[in-house]
Predict the structure.
Amino acid sequence: GGGGEQPAGGAGLRVSLVWTDPPGQPGAARALVNNLDLRVEGPNNQVWLGNGGTGPDQINNVETVRVAQPTPGTYRIIVQGSAVNATFGAQPFALLATSGQNSGASLDTAPIGPGQQRIYLPMIRRVR
């Protein structure tokens, strides 16, 4: 991982992924039916995975990445459906990406760090 984790609040980049999971079967070994994975890739080959693990989170339907001091540059946010049960159809989800620098702003860019480098939010593109 790229490190730089921080508790909720404060400056930095925050990305959250949530979805309503279909009902599991009683007695199932795993309660989660559909598994989506959050991955954030940053400058200098930095990588953060949902909920700060060393591998994809496979038990929660809420995943968060927090970067305390994001390096200026391009960040790529990836949501991957690693297990989606076709019985229930497509799995909708909600994704939120924000930074302490642009909280409450109506702009799609926000200054960050010395020299006023900028974070550009959002650009979402579906990749198949």
Notes: Confidence is low (pLDDT under 50) at residues 1-9, 102-114. The CA atoms of residues 72 and 113 lie 8 Å apart.
